[in-house]
């Protein structure tokens, strides 16, 4: 989405940018074209500090193998907005009204929260019908 907005901003200048950047990261796309193919757009992501990317379907599989159930996945900015009263005082990423600063919003948007839970052993799962 950030790349598409960047492309649209340069549209009238007949320039197709091949990257987006902030003070925390830079994403460079391999091919300079205005539209993404349906599948297979290659890119390189560089963080200003060390981070790790997680393949979420693999994480769900590993959690299931460890006896945990997947509950929810949510972008961190959406999670913050949904839980603002609870977290506003803990973070120095907000303005005086508790809203995320633009640079904070940009960085937090790269992260995802996820919730797994240990199943309740007293609850009998419903019988699946074919």
UniProtKB/TrEMBL annotation:
Residues 1-119 form the MRNA cap 0 methyltransferase domain. InterPro entries: mRNA_G-N7_MeTrfase_dom (IPR004971), RG7MT1 (IPR039753), SAM-dependent_MTases_sf (IPR029063). The keyword Membrane does not apply. One of its GO terms (molecular function) is mRNA 5'-cap (guanine-N7-)-methyltransferase activity. It comes from the Eukaryota. It catalyses: a 5'-end (5'-triphosphoguanosine)-ribonucleoside in mRNA + S-adenosyl-L-methionine = a 5'-end (N(7)-methyl 5'-triphosphoguanosine)-ribonucleoside in mRNA + S-adenosyl-L-homocysteine. This is mRNA (guanine-N(7))-methyltransferase.
